[in-house]
Predict the structure.
Amino acid sequence: MSDLARFSVSVERPLFERLERLVRESDYRNRSEFIRDLVRDRLVEQEWQTEREALGILSLLYDHHARGLSERLTHAQHHFSGQVLATTHVHLDARLCAEMIMLRGPGRAIRALADRLRRERGVLHAGLVAGTTGRALR
Ligand code: NI
């Protein structure tokens, strides 16, 4: 971070106080770091609206006793193998499995695959983290 730009921002006093509280409560060392992360989040959000390649992490919780579910989930991941970078599977207990699937592709395509997997009967929870390959931040 050798090339820093400094700027001042005007906001209403109550909003400024909310910002200060957010910074304190989220354990950021200072306001600048907090605002940098806000801007990065916004850039990644924007990247997901385009056709540019993004990175997604899908977490699935499912009941592997649900008939044919493991096969259907595997089948879908093979079908979208261009987007699936890696999958980690954990047997949580006798019945439940957790899977973390790292995906790479346009945000729209990642969401489509995530929605397809989430809709399978026996999937109890699905959460998608919208990440970035880093290009949005350069
Ligand atoms: Ni399992």
